[in-house]
Amino acid sequence: MPKPKKRGSNHQRGAGGQPRNVQPFSDEDASIETMSHCSGFSDPASFTEDGPEVDEEATQEDLEYKLKGFIDLTLDKSAKTRQAALESLKSAFSSKILYEFIMERRMTLTDSIERCIKKGKSDEQRAAAGLACLLCVQMGSGIESEEIFKTLGPVLKKIVCDGTASIQARQACATCLGICCFIVTDDITELYSTMECLENIFTKAYQRDRDTNGVPSTHNTVLHISALLAWTLLLTICPVNEVKKKIEMHLHKLPSLLSCDDLNMRIAAGETLALLFELARETDADFFYEDMELLTEKLRALATDGNKHRAKVDKRKQRSVFRDILRAVEERDFPTEMVKFGPERMYIDCWVKKQTYDTFKEILGSGMQYHLQSNDFLRNVFELGPPVMLDAATLKTMKIPRFERHLYNSAAFKARTKARSKCRDKRADVGEFF
């Protein structure tokens, strides 16, 4: 009788044909403290019940052992292996604070990233650029980060300006260039040079490049969007005189991008306009824009857009965003948002803060909340002060029993359902009109 096949015979090889010597960084590799970056653990009331104690020292040693292996694999001959190692390092850097570990190996990491960006293909270059962002986020605005940027800055600029490179690689490098410059640059000339590099990219969207048939080209749109958003981020840290120059240069041209066929470009242009108006009014209380009536008409049309040829999801998103943008331009108003992380709260009350938060959230993903709690650099950017240290006793008092949480969630769900049912009921009393 033949022996049955073993169930785990192919387990050594990862999904998608990943080489067996690369085991991606997983949630299990992060210590118990990284739970705070998950949405389900963003509030103190949702902390899990008491569990078995974790040997943090052993967990940290195991994590560092794996990370050393990933760093070594960034030099592998196989492109798939290098990319998988870069992605695993990105996952680890976004979910943990690894300052000491990285400090000892920053030159090795920088050399690996530089080599992957120079010699790799599109996907590998994107992964390397993303890792460079996270490397600078981990190191903060110190001398070590400046050294990293001095090495990687010229390489990133070369890829961004290289018309033969893939659009995806150029897009990732443009984002990385803006974020790294935002973090590390104290040299004003380097700041201006980086902004000029990004300007040379997104200003091409003003001309609405056309192909041989005269149809607007969307091939480079994603690159233009990334360059515009990275440039906008750097504008928030420019001196007042430079801000005025940039506003005069771009405020009359940006509205042309509101007619772009790409939804993300329309939103990026609209949010940049709102931010420019905010900065202009901060620098000059009597700021006056000549074409205000025409601009508000465009914004109002986008805020109430009902074109049938657009997807419902896109229209819903566009209307929501442009209602806020219209209020910002017309009424100088901003809808304050609250972000919860652990026991703390942060209020986003202006477009500059929103732009900065959205940028770092994009690269940190679900690790944003954890970094807001523990990353000194990010806490300094958002003026949160030093990290809040909570001992085990305090955390225990903040816990709510699981049964009580269940009752609270059930009551909230029922109340929400009733409220929505009233609004959706066509027979609801809508009042009399005279």
Q: What's the gist of this structure?
A:
This protein has 434 residues and is mostly helical. It is 60% helix and 2% strand.
Describe, in plain words, how this protein is organized in 3D:
The protein is mainly α and 434 residues long. Among the domains are: 61-208 and 218-235, Leucine-rich Repeat Variant; 239-333. It has 17 helices and two strands. It has helices at residues 56-73, 79-95, 99-119, 122-139, 143-160, 167-184, 188-202, 221-235, 240-250, 263-283, 292-303, 312-331, 351-364, 368-374, 376-381, 392-398, 402-424; strands spanning 337-341, 344-348. It has a two-stranded antiparallel sheet with strand order 1-2. Strand 1 (337-341) and strand 2 (344-348) form a beta hairpin. The chain starts with 55 loop residues before the first helix and ends in a 10-residue tail after the last helix. One of its GO terms (biological process) is cell differentiation. Keywords: Developmental protein, Differentiation. Residues 34-330 form the Interferon-related developmental regulator N-terminal domain. Residues 1-10 have a biased composition (Basic residues). One of its GO terms (cellular component) is nucleus.
